[in-house]
Amino acid sequence: MPRRKTNEKLAPIGEKELWHPYELQSVVSRKFIKIVDKILKGEYGLLDTSHCARTLEL
Q1: Are the C-beta atoms of residues 17 and 44 closer than 8 Å to each other?
Q2: How many Å apart are CA 58 and CA 55, to the nearest integer?
Q3: 43/35 Cα distance (integer angstroms)
C-alpha cells in the first residue's frame, strides 16, 4: 500500500486529571507529591476502586 503524501496532524494530548491508585505506585516521588497535592486541592481526581474489593467474613 502506498504511503500518504500528507502528514496527519493529531490533537495534542491534554493533562491527565484522573488517577488510578496503582498508577501512583510507579510514579517518581517528586511527581507523586505534586499529583497528591493536586488531588487534595481538588484539581485532580482519584478513581474509586472499592467496587473491586471483597470482604471476607470469618
Answers
A1: yes
A2: 10
A3: 9
How much is the pLDDT for 52?
Answer: 58
Hey, what amino acid is at 20? H
Query: CB within 8 A of 22, min separation 6: which ones?
Result: none
Cα–Cα distance measured from residue 24 to residue 18, given in angstroms and rounded to the nearest whole number: 11
Alpha carbons 58 and 43: distance in angstroms, whole number: 40
3 state SS of 35? helix
Q: How many residues does the chain have?
A: 58
- Kindly provide the residue ranges of all beta strands, DSSP E only, lying in 1-58, ordered along the sequence: 18-19, 45-46
**pLDDT (tens digit, 9 = 90+) per residue, 3-19?**
776 777 876 778 888 88
